[in-house]
């Protein structure tokens, strides 16, 4: 006899139909997924779309991050600036800043422009920064930016170890050059005398050529020698034999332009931040030297005689001709800029706020002699580079939008695949309805199916993109070696490597979007399935 | 012919239920019209039928007579025409006009369907096909709590229909008769009070069809209420051996010869 219904399968009373999640949905999802090739193709489509967006986001994000950090190398977190005329008592300001708990270090500097005359007589307009090597290094990544130094390990792409800095034969020279760079001085011709020197960005002179492996090597340049001097090839290593001439425009404390000053300085080293604009358009000079040349150093404050050349009666009653200017005090040295570095991982905006607070106290202590708090510029590194950062951010957003539009195809792909699968499974839907499955329950089979495909595709896309992003330079290198396909040329981009950065949060957002997209793609076919007339579905041929 | 002494009175033009257990389902004045383009095609024209508890009713009719439509209405897979005065009462509950949720529950627990073309899901194994009805009927927790009992019942049902050794096979690996036996086991998994079979032997050879009818006879002997629709006189006669035969012609039920089924 046919067995009676077991006691365990007691009749379910009204209300049980409200439960949507049922075992058959999970079973069908699993079986449909493993018995058909089309859902796997849909999962591959989701994987490729999510993977593509994550890779693009990682590369663009890494690019932006690299740009920002490169720009930050020679700026620190916050900049206090009073251009041209500068402000005095900066030593006191630095002391006050460094006493603040949020501030790690501060460094005075002068920022001005100069026409630089290079060894091959080319003239370039550059930004000159007068700095103290030691204090500047505490605030910024200056020391690590000095390019010429002895190294033991080659750059990642320099498999043949061709970087001249690896050459043990010139290790002594490079060590000295590194020391010169740190102090922004070079040894003088006699004794232990040190002469002020300049450290230009490595792209300024053109005497160092960047190789595709990412390192620089000195290169000869053709030099024009005046109208009748002809041409000669100049082959020099700039930090050993190079000199440059800076043409500076001094401004007095009232902002009046004084006589142009020309100074010829030897090159101590070259710096490399990775940011082309900075490496091409900036040169660093020892602060004291720049103050002297710009007449911003400490000086005697004078007043002109009332009657120059006139007769002056002395206290003892004798008379003489007046001798000239009379000193009435001291004009303190000035700087235009103070760079500030926050303590630890302090937020730049918070540091800027602390700096503003310190500056108010400083201005109160030197009322009338320093710019009032409301007028001086206090900006974060992001504010300083906002044009560039905003441009790259916009570009990143634009690229992401474009790729997201492309990824919308995944939705339609899932929709198309599911539409045909629903058609193929029409009889199954009829059977489910005949067995008592609700419309919602049938719809959930397909939405759940879409979600599972989305999860598989999203996770696979995340894993794929992680593998690509973390090995992007190796992949790029392999593409170059195997197919001659070099998409990222460091000679063009001025980064030796593709600056990708995998962010778990971003990747999770994209993967989750992939899951949602799949569910959305499955929604329309799911509604279609749920609205199917069961009788027609069972008769479907 | 009917061996059940008691009858339930039916309206004129209808067919009374007969049997000792009272009518489990009673349909009155069923009208169903399909629309083909701009033309209305009436399929059922005022059909009334009652089925008593434990009764075996065979509905015989030519192709297009409306017998499958009648079965679909009795099983709440379809609804009769609106405002036609149709009524289907199952175990004292009116199904016409009932909510979708009520009808879903009716199909889960009160009726079982057997189709001509079996309609097994090809991706599922034999035992999974049988359990599908239980999976649909119970929520996740409900199913989990009954899992062992349901598994046992599915295996017992399959053993009874002679497929105890093919639990893990896929439908594609079975013959037509075996597939139909799996479909019968599936229809019985939730212990329905009414089994509806639509041309259950229509796709089988005569010998295999006989084994299926034997199975139905056995079910009926065990107290199962059944309605089988068929176009085949021989099948109807086999069913008539255990119960009643009703004739459906052109959307109308013919009066039973001699006044009874």
What's the N-to-C terminus distance of chain B?
6 Å
Q: Tell me the number of structural domains of chain A.
A: 2
H and E string of chain B:
EEEEEHEEHEHHHEHEHEE
Q: Approximately how much helix is present in the residues of chain B?
A: 25-40%
Quick one: CATH class of the largest domain in chain B? Alpha Beta
Gyration radius of chain A (Cα, Å) is 35 Å
- CATH fold assignment of the largest domain in chain B: Rossmann fold
Name the average pLDDT of chain B.
85
Question: Number of helical runs of chain A?
Answer: 18
Largest interface: A-B, 42 and 51 residues
Biggest sheet of chain A: strands, sense, closure?
Answer: 6 strands, mixed, barrel
As residue ranges, the low-confidence spans of chain B are 1-13
Descriptive report:
Chain A is α+β, with helices and mostly antiparallel strands. Chain A has two domains: 193 residues, no CATH class; 238 residues, no CATH class. Chain A is built from 18 helices and 20 strands. In chain A, the strands form six sheets. In chain A, strands 3-4-13-6-12-11 form a six-stranded mixed beta barrel, surrounded by five helices. In chain A, α3 packs across α10 and α14 packs antiparallel against α17. The longest helix of chain A has 39 residues. Chain A starts with 22 loop residues before the first helix and ends with a helix. Chain B is of the alpha/beta class and 261 residues long. The longest helix of chain B has 21 residues. The N terminus of chain B is likely disordered. In chain B, the strands form three sheets. A six-stranded mixed beta sheet of chain B has the order 8-9-10-5-11-12, sandwiched between helices. In chain B, strands 4-3-6-7 form a four-stranded antiparallel beta sheet, with helices on one face. Chain B is globular. Chain B contains seven helices and twelve strands. Chain B starts with 6 loop residues before the first strand and ends in a 7-residue tail after the last strand. Chains A and B meet through α1, α13 and α18 of A and α2, α3, α4 and α6 of B.
């Amino acid at each position: 006899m046919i067995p009676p219904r077991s006691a365990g399968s007691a009749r379910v009373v009204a209300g049980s139909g409200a439960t949507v999640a049922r075992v058959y949905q999970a079973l069908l999802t699993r079986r449909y997924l493993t018995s058909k090739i089309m859902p796997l193709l849909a999962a591959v489509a989701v994987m490729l779309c999510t993977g593509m967006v994550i890779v693009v986001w990682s590369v663009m994000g890494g690019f932006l991050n690299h740009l920002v950090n490169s720009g930050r190398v020679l700026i620190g977190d916050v900049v206090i600036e009073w251009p041209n005329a500068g402000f005095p008592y900066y030593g006191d300001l630095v002391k006050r800043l460094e006493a603040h708990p949020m501030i790690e270090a501060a460094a005075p500097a002068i920022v001005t422009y100069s026409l630089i005359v290079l060894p091959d007589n080319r003239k370039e307009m550059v930004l000159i920064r007068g700095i103290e090597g030691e204090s500047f290094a505490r605030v910024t990544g200056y020391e690590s930016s000095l390019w010429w130094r002895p190294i033991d390990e080659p750059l990642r792409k320099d498999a043949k170890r061709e970087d001249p800095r690896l050459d043990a034969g010139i290790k002594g020279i490079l060590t000295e050059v590194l020391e010169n760079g740190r102090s922004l001085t070079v040894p003088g011709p006699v004794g232990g005398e040190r002469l002020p020197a300049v450290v230009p960005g490595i792209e300024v002179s053109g005497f160092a050529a960047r190789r595709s492996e990412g390192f620089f090597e000195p290169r000869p340049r053709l030099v024009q020698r005046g109208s009748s001097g002809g041409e000669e090839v100049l082959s020099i290593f700039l930090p050993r034999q190079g000199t440059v001439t800076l043409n500076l425009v001094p401004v007095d404390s009232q902002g009046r332009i004084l006589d142009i000053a020309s100074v010829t300085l030897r090159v101590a080293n070259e710096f490399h931040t990775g940011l082309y604009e900075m490496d091409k358009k900036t040169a660093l000079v020892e602060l004291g030297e720049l103050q002297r040349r710009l007449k911003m150093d400490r000086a005697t404050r004078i007043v002109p005689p009332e009657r120059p050349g006139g007769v002056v009666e002395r206290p003892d009653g004798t008379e003489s001709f007046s001798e000239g200017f009379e000193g009435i005090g001291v004009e303190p040295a000035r700087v235009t800029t103070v760079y500030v570095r926050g303590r630890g991982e302090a937020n730049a905006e918070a540091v800027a706020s602390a700096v503003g607070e310190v500056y108010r106290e400083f201005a109160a202590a030197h009322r009338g002699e320093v710019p009032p708090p409301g007028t001086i510029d206090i900006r974060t590194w992001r504010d300083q580079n906002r044009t560039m950062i905003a441009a790259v951010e916009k570009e990143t957003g634009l690229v992401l939008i474009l790729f997201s539009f492309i990824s919308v195809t995944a939705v339609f792909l899932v929709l198309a695949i599911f539409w045909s699968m629903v058609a193929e499974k029409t009889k199954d839907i009829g059977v489910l309805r005949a067995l008592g499955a609700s419309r919602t329950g049938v719809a959930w089979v397909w939405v759940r199916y879409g979600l599972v495909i989305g999860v598989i595709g999203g996770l696979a896309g995340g894993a794929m993109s992680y593998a690509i992003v973390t090995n992007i330079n190796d992949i790029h290198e392999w593409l170059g070696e195997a197919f001659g396909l070099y998409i990222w040329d460091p000679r063009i981009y001025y980064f030796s490597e593709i600056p990708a950065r995998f962010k778990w949060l971003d990747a999770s957002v994209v993967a989750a979007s992939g899951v949602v997209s799949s569910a959305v793609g499955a929604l329309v076919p799911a509604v279609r399935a749920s609205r199917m007339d069961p009788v027609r579905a069972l008769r479907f041929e | 012919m009917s061996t059940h002494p008691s009858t339930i009175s039916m309206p004129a033009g209808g067919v009374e239920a007969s049997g000792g257990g009272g009518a489990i389902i009673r349909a009155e004045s069923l009208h169903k019209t399909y629309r083909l383009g701009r033309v209305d095609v009436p399929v059922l024209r005022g059909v009334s039928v009652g089925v008593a508890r434990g009764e075996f009713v065979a509905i015989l009719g030519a192709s297009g007579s409306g017998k499958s439509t009648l079965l679909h209405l009795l099983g709440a897979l379809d609804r009769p025409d609106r405002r036609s005065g149709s009524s289907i009462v199952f175990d004292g509950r009116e199904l016409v006009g009932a909510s979708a949720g009520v009808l879903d529950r009716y199909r889960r627990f009160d009726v079982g369907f057997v189709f001509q073309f079996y309609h097994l899901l090809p991706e599922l194994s034999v035992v999974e096909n049988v359990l599908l009805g239980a999976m649909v009927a119970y929520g996740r927790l409900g199913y989990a709590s009954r899992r062992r009992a349901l598994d046992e019942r599915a295996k017992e049902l399959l053993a009874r229909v002679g497929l105890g050794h093919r639990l893990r096979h896929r439908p594609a690996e079975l013959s037509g008769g075996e597939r139909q036996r799996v479909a019968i086991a599936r229809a019985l998994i939730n212990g329905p009070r009414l089994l509806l079979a639509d041309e259950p032997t229509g796709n089988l050879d005569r010998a295999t069809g006989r084994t299926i009818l034997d199975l139905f006879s056995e079910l009926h002997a065990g107290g199962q209420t059944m309605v089988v629709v068929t176009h085949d006189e021989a099948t109807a006669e086999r069913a008539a051996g255990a119960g009643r035969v009703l004739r459906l012609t052109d959307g109308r039920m013919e009066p039973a010869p001699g006044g009874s089924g």
